[in-house]
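Handout, section B. The chain below has 311 residues.
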Amino acid sequence: MKNILVTGGAGYIGSMLVPELLKEGYKTTVIDNFMFKQASLNNLCTIKNFDIINGDIRDKSLMKKLVDKHDVIIPLAAIVGAPLCNKDPYNAQSINYDAIKDMFSYVSNNQFIIMPTTNSAYGTGDKNNFCNEKSPLRPISKYAKDKVEIEKDLMSRENSISYRLATVFGMSPRMRIDLLVNDFTYRAYHDSSLIIFEGHFKRNYIHVRDVVGAFIHALNNLDKMKSEIYNVGLSQANLSKKELCEEIKKQIPNFTYVEEKIKKDPDQRNYIVSNEKIENTGFKPKFSLSDGIKELIKGYSMIKNQSFGNF
């Protein structure tokens, strides 16, 4: 049995990942500071192989002790997304960069790290907006720039896997409405209308359950996949904002959207991402964008609260 440490394990992805790790038989420890007051792991407390620590990854003495006890580390703790990083630059720097660099120094060569980075580092892609793992990185936000630097350090060690995640969507016990598909669907469901900026900008998407599946896939194929970087996205979902709106409109027919041509979107990402590399290892996403929109519509019948986000 592998002992797995998940930092930020009560967050949007972690709340979906940790139950699956336990189902797979892994002894799983979560450290989270519960900054969003979430109770997303309450239902796991009866499970013997689950441990939870209310703590901060910036606590060096605590992290040294924790890291030493585990075979695999999955670092999810982060101030996620450009808006929140801009709003809280101190914590963005100390959590996303400083604490991760410190953690790397505690990890021995025989321990594995499977870490999500971001495909937002591609920025605007090439003249065709196409990106694969060998494409130049052109990060725009501080969040993406820090992820690029951390990824360099991560890949300087042998037993590491970097997952450049597409924009994640879908319901989670620790919900985030601010992610693009989640946000657009929320507005379509509750407001029936939306103003978009630079609607031709494309990006890639991936269901949160498929992100979980990618981590389980890596755990099952560590020796084959180690020391590599992989884009993790839904190849059928390299869509512009307009195309995303049309997909939502198929399920919410009264939804209308208008493109505002005067202002610019502060998020200037625009790219098409290849996920062929991870697909060639045998990983295939199971949830379509349409599946996710349908699921979100169900979820939003229960949710009308803007506290579910990283703002």
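Note. The domain at 3-167+206-232 is CATH 3.40.50.720 (Rossmann fold). Compare this with the example in section A.
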